[in-house]
Amino acid sequence: MSYGDAMRARTRSEERRAEIVRAALEVIAERGYRGASLAAVAERVGLTQQGLLHHFPTKEALLVAVLQERDRWDAMPAGLLRLDLLASLVEYNAMRPAIIQTFSALLGESVTEDHPARAYFTERYTGVREGMAEVLRAEYGDRLPSGLTPERAAPLLVAVLDGLQYQWLLDPESVDMPSAFRDFLTLLGENRPD
Hints:
Layout: H1 3-35, H2 38-44, H3 49-55, H4 59-74, H5 83-93, H6 97-109, H7 118-140, H8 150-170, H9 177-188
Helix pairs in contact: 1-2, 1-4, 1-6, 2-3, 5-9, 6-8, 7-8, 8-9
């Protein structure tokens, strides 16, 4: 096989993997992780289950790829995230309910002891809390207007972000997620008068 043929084959394989991940995201959003099957994902992309296993040897490997892809979509370089950009992220999330539904369903399922995404979410949330503490420290210093440290306020900020997503998914007509998050920022003191 020539170098050019090898590169084309690799590109096709990467494109197929991306297609499978997108299909898995859809199936998980519709059925939850436990209800999603490799056969359903394979059917959605026009593969046999054996063909899908060539790209992802286990359902767990596919799940991790889905979660990693979702995180890549929202990734911001370290040090560039600010509270006002978090508000923009909330607005962006309001435009993609299927992604938010999938993430929320997986997060909810992952709290069970034997769920294959439990370790992933545990590690992810450790990093998210640390990142939110850095964002709060950059905005307020060592103390927020309430007197809380950034480390004490970070889990609350994460809880608001995730809690708003759940409420919005359940009743999007009643919960304006971006407005509610901006209200929370006001409570934090983000729009405090100078």
